[in-house]
Design a protein that fits this description.
Elements (H helix, E strand, L loop, with lengths): L6 E4 L4 H11 L3 E4 L12 H13 E2 L2 E4 L6 E4 L2 E2 L2 E7 L6 H13 L5 E7 L9 H12 L10 E6 L8 E7 L16 E11 L4 H14 L6 E8 L11 E10 L4 E9 H14 L1
Parallel strand pairs: 1-2, 7-8, 11-12
Antiparallel strand pairs: 2-5, 3-6, 4-5, 8-10, 9-10, 11-13, 13-14
């Protein structure tokens, strides 16, 4: 076996894109100076978790990290996919952080991908799992991805800081993707959405729906926002209290425009502590 030639990169920017493209192109990469100037240098917990996820989906993948975590050697393997896979995404980033590269890897796997992801389903930093289900999946049809077998089920909702969410993802394999010229955004014809609460009063969800409808009904009548209220742990409420809403506007050209937001009590406490320190 000959010597492996690594493509050299520097910095921590675009870490997901670098790992994803290296895997799809079977190109070994060497990344140096990863968060080297930070107070805590080296790979972050969510970046290490992403590497573990790539290892689960591929065969013969090799990952080498130096002692300080500032240098990474990544030799991608063959994308296998498979079923009955489970991955804990942790609580430093939401599940949406992992879904973006995971979906693309699943398309080019040898087998249909079926995986359970646990962690934070909704937060203010990453796209929510609702956005992937209501916006990303419908838009993928324009690129030749069949809707049959493409599925995302939310078994449990989890918000920061302690997560506790669980989603079941199924991604079919595709032979090729279709190039699409899509420049016409179109006019909004309907708005759909879902408000959720976990371990808090469902009244908060009702108030969000009422306020959102009060704004959107001034523009168009076709507005429907569903509710997903989970108060008890056995009902899939996760480990932290919080609430939020996810909205998607469907246009006449088949475009989907999404927006979502989440409020968790852990985040509120962090903001209050930061303000107290400043004062």
């Amino acid at each position: 076996m000959g010597k492996i030639t690594y493509k050299k990169l520097k910095g921590s920017q675009n870490m997901r894109q670098r790992l994803l493209l290296a895997t799809l192109k079977s190109t070994p990469i060497l990344i140096e100076v990863i968060h080297a100037d930070d107070t805590l240098p080296g790979l972050r917990p969510h970046e290490i978790s992403l590497l573990h996820l790539f290892e689960k989906l591929t065969d013969d993948c090799v990952v080498e990290i130096n002692e300080t975590g500032t240098k990474l050697k990544y030799k991608p393997g063959i994308i296998v996919g498979g079923s009955n896979l489970v991955h804990d995404c942790g609580v430093s980033r939401a599940i949406g952080y992992f879904l973006e590269p995971l979906i693309l890897l699943g398309f080019f796997a040898r087998k249909t991908l079926a995986i359970i992801l646990t962690g934070i389903t909704n937060d203010s930093k990453d796209p929510s799992v609702d956005t992937f289900r209501s916006t990303t999946f419908p838009m993928l049809k324009h690129f030749g991805v069949p809707s049959e077998g493409l599925k995302l089920e939310i078994k449990s909702r989890g918000v920061s800081p302690h997560g506790g969410g669980e989603v079941h993802l199924t991604i079919p394999t595709v032979q090729h993707l279709r190039a699409t010229m899509w420049t016409d955004e179109g006019m909004v014809k309907r708005i759909r959405g879902e408000a959720f609460t976990t371990r808090v009063s469902p009244q908060l969800g009702n108030e969000m729906i009422y306020a959102a409808r009060g704004i959107f009904n001034r523009l168009l009548p076709d507005v429907y926002i569903a509710s997903d209220y989970r108060k008890r742990l056995e009902a899939g409420s996760g480990n932290s209290p919080g609430y939020g809403i996810s909205l998607v506007a469907e246009t006449t050209s088949g475009c989907c425009i999404s927006a979502d937001t989440t409020v968790s009590y852990g985040e509120k406490q962090k903001i209050l502590k930061a303000r107290t320190r400043k004062s």
